Amino acid sequence: DHFGKKRLDLAGPLLASLFRLLFKKLTRDIYNYMQRCVENDKEFNLTLAVKSQTITDGLRYSLATGNWGEQRKAMSARAGVSQVLNRYTYSSTLSHLRRTNTPIGRDGKIAKPRQLHNTHWGLVCPAETPEGHACGLVKNLSLMTCISVGTSSEPILYFLEEWGMEPLEDYVPSNAPDCTRVFVNGVWVGTHREPAQLVDTMRRLRRKGDISPEVSIIRDIREMEFK
Question: Recorded E.C. number(s) (predicted)?
């Protein structure tokens, strides 16, 4: 399958979503306890309200069993998310740390997700995949692959406005028919009269580290677009 449309669930976002789920459960328990105190005319005791083991036990359960979610909803939780790290050899450890898993049924007869795609070039190993049901679905990232985690578009919009971008609300086609349209994450946000200067400025800001190095800067001269 095309790697341009793939997204990876990494350890950080997975742990963050699990913590968010457990924290909501903790606040819900505190709210229920507070409601009972009000109904029964009892004094609110913070020590009894906060169950200190809710988050700890939830994290331990998910990391120990691999079922990602609340323990009481184990049937609907994702299975096999956490695994015991392979320490057999240094190479096997590196391989296990860079392993990816395509979450589709192993018994399906669809061949396309298992086959090698042109976009896999330089991103995944074309040979290292298990035999049997998981063939082509479990892949290993190459050692030099870098995963972008995504950044906020607010700094980009701020810099574009600082360097002469006219907002889309003020755009009048008859006043500037030859201006270049500016897109951020596929959304048309404004226009610019000096696209070559804007490209040079944005690339200089990226090299200096003022904007994220993951931001791609493209100027389409034929379509008069800056993305």
Answer: 2.7.7.6
3-state secondary structure the chain: CCHHHCCCCCHHHHHHHHHHHHHHHHHHHHHHHHHHHHHCCCCCCHHHHCCCHHHHHHHHHHHHHCCECCHHHCCCCECCCCCCCCCCCHHHHHHHHCEEECCCCCCCCCCHHHCCCHHHCCCECCCCCCCHHHCCCEEEECCCCCCCCCCCCHHHHHHHHHCCCEEHHHCCCCCCCCCEEEEECCEEEEEECCHHHHHHHHHHHHHHCCCCCCCCCCEECCCCEEC
Distances (CA, A) of 191 to 1, 103, 155: 35, 41, 17
How many C-beta neighbours within 10 Å does residue 128 have? 14
CB within 8 Å of 3: residues ≥ 6 apart: 117, 119, 120, 123, 124
Q: What is the pLDDT of residues 177-199, one digit of tens each?
A: 788 888 888 888 888 888 888 88
User: Which residues of the chain carry a pLDDT beneath 70?
Assistant: 74
| pTM summary value | 0.71
For helices 195-208 and 154-162, angle between their N-to-C axes, nearest 10 degrees: 130
What contacts 79, CB < 8 A, 6 or more positions away? 66, 67, 68
C-alpha–C-alpha distance, residues 153 and 174, integer Å? 29
Tokens encoding 195: 């696209």
pLDDT of res. 24: 92
